[in-house]
Amino acid sequence: MKTRITELFGIEHPIIQGGMHYVGFAELAAAVSNAGGLGIITGLTQKTPELLAKEIRRCHEMTDKPFGVNLTFLPTVTSPDYPGYIKAIIDGGVKAVETAGNNPQKWLPVLKEHGINVIHKCTSVRHSLKAEAIGCDAVSVDGFECGGHPGEDDVPNFILLPRAAEELKIPFVASGGMADGRSLVAALALGAEGMNMGTRFMATQEAPIHDNVKQAIVAASELDTRLVMRPLRNTERVLRNAAVDTLLEKERELGSAIKFEDIIDQVAGVYPVIMKEGAMDAGAWSCGMVAGLVRDVPTVKQLIDRIMAEARAIIHQRLAGFAAA
Ligand SMILES: Cc1cc2nc3c(=O)[nH]c(=O)nc-3n(C[C@H](O)[C@H](O)[C@H](O)COP(=O)(O)O)c2cc1C
């Protein structure tokens, strides 16, 4: 399948694996790239630029296909060493960067100078247009359904994607709620040129996370996610668990007076404990509503091959059948 996204990133299938904290290690990124998609290493999961450089080297050893690095610009108290991370990306010969969070404008000239394609993740049409205006090559349009940070506008992809298609000139992928061949065909029909998946890729053999996390996603239905940190305007969609119930109870009790310090136990530093040790109630962790569509833990290649076969069957049989009628 050829789209502007496959052309831009030099990949076989229009499928990207979004950056995921403590999930997007070289093992997963390489598996996705080897299966013909674009795998992405999560930059900030590596505590220093030196460690990111090492992770990039590990990924090169596992694949000779293109892969990317995610750089997330979120409001943090102490800013990470972004220039150092960018140097590691450039020196590591990486040709794709997924940016997310704050406006990446400051970093674009140096990335472009080194021939790196930038896809910025946006949760609104206005941010997507801004990304286009500042020179990003593509956008990942993240609907309200998505795991992680859906922004504060709450527009689901059935509206957000066609709105993005009406306004954008650069190509974009649909992100949030994508799981299978149906998702891909729907995304293409709504104007996207590929799809980005987070939660679905967690439940794969190669995702280097504890099996408890994969099983929790398989067991969850589309009703099992919750939005946390809305009062802090840092909304995150997470899987409901004991820590999330505690967090939401605090949000109800404290109302608009709530501060980050009040919920620090439920959100700060919890990812390694959950993803590596499988302590499922240790804190709030990102998960999309799409968990309701995840029922197995295939290899990444089985997943991607299945998606492409299903998408082709839908286009050539189901849709072609309707069109002929
Ligand atoms: C566990 C988890 C961690 C994530 N961490 C990040 C992150 O560090 N940076 C980022 O830009 N997006 C992050 N995301 C968002 C994903 O890259 C992707 O946009 C999102 O999962 C898409 O929605 P889906 O889960 O419905 O597929 C994370 C998502 C999950 C599920």
Taken from the alpha-carbon principal axes, the silhouette is globular
List low-confidence stretches: none
Largest sheet: 8 strands, parallel
Strand content: 5-15%
Mean model confidence by pLDDT: 97
Give me the count of strands: 10
The molecules bound to the chains, other than polymers, are: flavin mononucleotide
Residue share in helices?
40-55%
Number of helices: 14
Describe the protein in words.
This protein is α/β, with parallel strands linked by helices and 325 residues long. It has helices at 4-9, 26-34, 49-62, 82-91, 108-113, 125-134, 157-167, 181-189, 199-202, 211-219, 242-254, 264-267, 271-277, 300-324; strands at 15-17, 39-42, 67-73, 96-101, 117-122, 138-142, 172-175, 195-197, 225-228, 236-239. Bound molecules: flavin mononucleotide. Residues 18-21, 23, 42, 70, 72, 100, 121, 142, 145-148, 175-178, 196-200, 285-288, 290 line the site of flavin mononucleotide (FMN).
